[in-house]
Amino acid sequence: MQLKRRIYILTMKLAMYIAVILMCSIFAAIIGYVLFRGLPNISWEFLSASPSYLREEIGILPYIVNTSYLVLGTLLLVIPIGVGAAIYLTEYAVNKKFVLLIEYAAETLS
Fold first, then answer.
1. Residue 69 and residue 18: Cα distance in Å, rounded?
2. Mean pLDDT, to the nearest integer, of 2-18?
């Protein structure tokens, strides 16, 4: 390999490592700031109460329950469809170009 090419590859690797370290440190700083400012305000009453403007209470229990219902409902709907599609594509699909297209799309999404 030429010296110019090696320097270019080394420079690109160094830039990539610097970018990764910078992004990870920014992400850690944001998460740390949110936790530092937010954890003192979390209490059992906050997690287990319903919000009420009349009693001037703040709570997030209904939001936690609704999110759990949405996640559970989505899983109950999507898992059988995904397993059925996987079984169909691996065992019964005849059109190999279509199967390759689906595999490419799944790999791209993942």
1. 41
2. 96
Residues listed for the chain = 110
- CA–CA dist 48, 61 (Å, integer): 5
DSSP the chain: --HHHHHHHHHHHHHHHHHHHHHHHHHHHHHHHHHHHHGGG--HHHHHS--BTTTTB---HHHHHHHHHHHHHHHHHHHHHHHHHHHIIIII---HHHHHHHHHHHHHH-
Residue type, 64: I
Report the candidate in 65, 48, 66 with the shortest Cα–Cα distance to residue 57. 48
Which tokens hold the place of 64?
A: 């936690």
pLDDT band at 45 (very low <50, low <70, confident <90, very high): confident
The dihedral through the CA atoms of 39, 45, 51, 53 has a sign that is negative
Model-level pTM?
Answer: 0.60
